[in-house]
Design a protein that fits this description.
mainly alpha
Length: about 270
């Protein structure tokens, strides 16, 4: 079997394992949809009490749906190699002939699939429950921006997975540090431009910031009060996707070299 076919099959196998594992416990699926909806409800009622533009309700529903991807990258994708080592799978992957990037790509694909189901559930339920008006005037542009956002976000997750593995349990502090501040700085529930250009520029280092802002501009037009023009944000997302994937490859190679030297690929509970 040629190398590329073997790598494709290996990646799809890891994607299948991730997808099945994430939906094995039904309560996880329920909570992953219910908890974002609670946050969505709180912000929608708040905006309605303030008499804000109805478009803000659409901002909130879209932002609540996109949290599924950010949480999956932060707590699932980034920590995946760490948990593979804990259950004893990582050393098997390292001695196999498949590409390490195929392994990470498969994990990302599986996480993307399950997160898409949860995000779509949150989006549909949010629209129906709160009677949010959301039309799609430019579906092709929206699909392109979404695809670029996912490439950049999961590329970032692939990079973080190596860092989590190398720094062990100390790396969990990174997730705790990034989760709530990113909710605020990335504008999950309001236009990020309202925080000022300086904060917006800093938050743009996280790909989901620009992706969410661009999608809101395509859906809500001027009401979105976008940070940058959609074409500029899409171009930046494309660059971020390439950069994060290259960094993921580099950090993966460094992780493997250091891990073999220090025995971190097999030692558990570090």
């Amino acid at each position: 079997m040629s190398d590329w076919r073997m790598n494709v099959r290996a990646g799809l196998a890891r994607a299948y394992a991730r997808a099945v594992g994430a939906t094995r416990e039904p309560s996880w699926v329920v909570f992953d949809v219910l908890l974002p909806l609670l946050g969505v409800a709180a912000y929608i009622f708040y905006y309605r009490a303030l008499g804000a533009d109805p478009a803000f309700e659409g901002f909130v529903v879209l932002g609540g749906a996109m949290t599924a991807f950010w949480l999956n990258v932060l707590w699932g994708m980034a920590a995946q190699l760490f948990w593979e080592r804990e259950v004893g799978n990582l050393q098997l992957f390292m001695v196999s002939p498949m590409s390490r990037m195929a392994l990470l790509a498969g994990m990302a694909l599986g996480g993307l699939f399950t997160s898409s189901v949860r995000a779509l559930s949150t989006l549909v339920l949010g629209i129906l429950l709160f009677q949010v008006n959301m039309s799609v005037p430019e579906p092709v542009a929206l699909a392109v921006v979404f695809a670029l956002t996912m490439l950049a976000v999961y590329g970032m997750g692939m990079m973080l997975s190596s860092l989590f593995l190398m720094y062990g349990r100390d790396a969990w502090n990174i997730s705790n540090l990034l989760q709530e501040p990113v909710y605020l700085m990335s504008g999950f529930y309001f236009p990020v431009r309202e925080l000022g250009l300086a904060v917006g520029a800093l938050a743009s280092l996280i790909p989901i910031t620009l992706g969410l802002d661009a999608m809101r501009q395509l859906l809500f037009g001027q009401a979105a009060n976008g940070l940058l023009p959609v074409t500029v944000e899409a171009a930046i997302l494309a660059v971020q996707a390439v950069v994060f994937i290259v960094l993921a490859r580099f950090s993966l190679d460094r992780m493997e070299q250091r891990g073999r030297r220090e025995g971190r690929l097999t030692l558990r509970w570090q």
